[in-house]
Amino acid sequence: LLHSPCGWSCGYTLQERRIYNPADEVYLRLSRIFPVDFVFLSVVVLYIFAATLFGIVALDIRLLCISVYTLRARKSAPQALLVMCNAMAYILLALCVALLTIAPDYTAFGSQTRPSGGASGSERCSLAQSEQKCQVSVIAKFFTRIALAMPIFSIAYFLANWAFIAVFMLVFTRGLFFQRRQPFLDTATDCDEEELGLLAFS
């Protein structure tokens, strides 16, 4: 809200870094040692993917908070697996957008630098000077163009990030003080073959 030069008209896009981003700084420093940055990035991506998969299995397939399919080991309906795979595909797409939030400079430019008149002789690339010997990544260029052409999507994503942070803090605080038995620890009840949508040939 405070650091975007164009505000809501461009979806709060930042042309250059204004505040310190620890994740971005770590990845930019690790990018000097190939392929350490790729290893750490893979760990983050796999963690988010595993946490998402764990959450889907724990909460089951739901529509408007109503359970539609139950996911159990060797007892899941084929339709449930198809819906879960479809949901994971969309989550991976959302993860590409999340990388621009977690480490924007690293995702957009990697370890690229551009010449400058300072003592170091070079400085990191930014969107404000992206045409000066800086090659923007395809994913950053794609989503930046969407943000500039249709800022409503970027504003919705910006507000959704703050909503996620607020909900996460509330749930995390509640989890610290109120212990609850998790549904994925319950013993799975036996389901007959009609409920699973399978045919019995016995």
Sum this structure up briefly:
It contains seven helices and four strands; from the N terminus they run H-H-E-E-H-H-E-E-H-H-H. By secondary structure, it is mainly alpha-helical.
How many helices? Answer: 7
Report, as a whole number of angstroms, the end-to-end distance.
65 Å
Specify the biggest β-sheet. 2 strands, antiparallel
Largest beta sheet: strand ordering = 1-2
Descriptive report:
- There is one protein chain.
- By secondary structure, the chain is mostly helical.
- It has a domain at 17-113 and 121-135.
- The protein contains seven helices and four strands, in the order H-H-E-E-H-H-E-E-H-H-H.
- The strands form two sheets. A two-stranded antiparallel sheet has the order 1-2.
- Strand 3 and strand 4 (122-124) form a beta hairpin.
- Helix 1 (22-30) packs across helix 2 and helix 5 (138-149) packs across helix 6.
- Residues 184-196 and 198-202 have low confidence and may be disordered.
Topology of this protein?
Blueprint: H1 22-30, H2 36-59, E1 61-63, E2 66-69, H3 78-102, H4 104-109, E3 113-115, E4 122-124, H5 138-149, H6 151-177, H7 193-196
Antiparallel strand pairs: 1-2, 3-4
